[in-house]
Amino acid sequence: HHLDRRLAQLVDDPRVWGPCADIIGQDRLSLFSDKMNVKRPGGAPFPWHQEGPYWAYGAEDLEHVVTLIIYLDDAHEENGCLWVIPGTHRYGALESLKDRGTLGRLYTDVDRLEEKPFPIALPAGSVAWFHRDIVHGSQTNRSEEDRRAFLLAYQPQGLHQWRNGEQRDVGGAR
């Protein structure tokens, strides 16, 4: 992996990609996206958004992309853990905030939703999988510590990575 060999081991670990294979319904997968997310003390909130509308520009099979977050540090409300709005994946791509500048197209208008946000507060080493259309975001890191997370997205094998066009296959025997 381009960041760290330990992260490369996570990418290839069946405990990580296995649930994605179960969700997608295939034993062989390719990596779609990988990202290190570090929220520094005082780090700003990240607005409500969905991955689907953003990834629609590069996914070859958006319907079969599954995302997960691996917390490298304890994640809680004080340090800006991920929040989701349960059930919103059933709505598909929601209205964006187009009127709020260029990036507004990537942010989701949640004002009309009845569902209430829920924090994904978990200890370091925990993994949470989520659907591309679940509305999610994070708040300010009000703690004195970094909140680090590694995000991965998998897709059916044979498809190319989102940013670099390479193909990184995983899967098979578990």
- CATH structural fold name: Jelly Rolls
Q: Approximately what portion of the residues adopt beta-strand conformation?
A: 25-35%
Radius of gyration: 16 Å
Please provide the ordered H/E string of secondary-structure elements: HHEEHEEEEEEE
Could you tell me how far the N terminus lies from the C terminus, measured between alpha carbons in angstroms? 21 Å
Helix/strand-derived class? alpha+beta
What CATH architecture do you see?
Answer: Sandwich
Helical residues, percent: 10-25%
Shape: globular
Number of helices: 3
Architecture overview:
The chain is α+β, with helices and mostly antiparallel strands and 174 residues long. It has one domain: Sandwich (Jelly Rolls), CATH 2.60.120. The protein is built from 3 helices and 9 strands; from the N terminus they run ααββαβββββββ. The chain has helices at 5-12, 14-24, 51-55; strands at residues 28-39, 46-49, 66-71, 82-85, 118-119, 127-131, 135-138, 147-156, 169-171. It has a 5-stranded antiparallel sheet with strand order 6-3-8-1-9. The longest helix has 11 residues, at 14-24. The radius of gyration is 16 Å and the shape is globular.
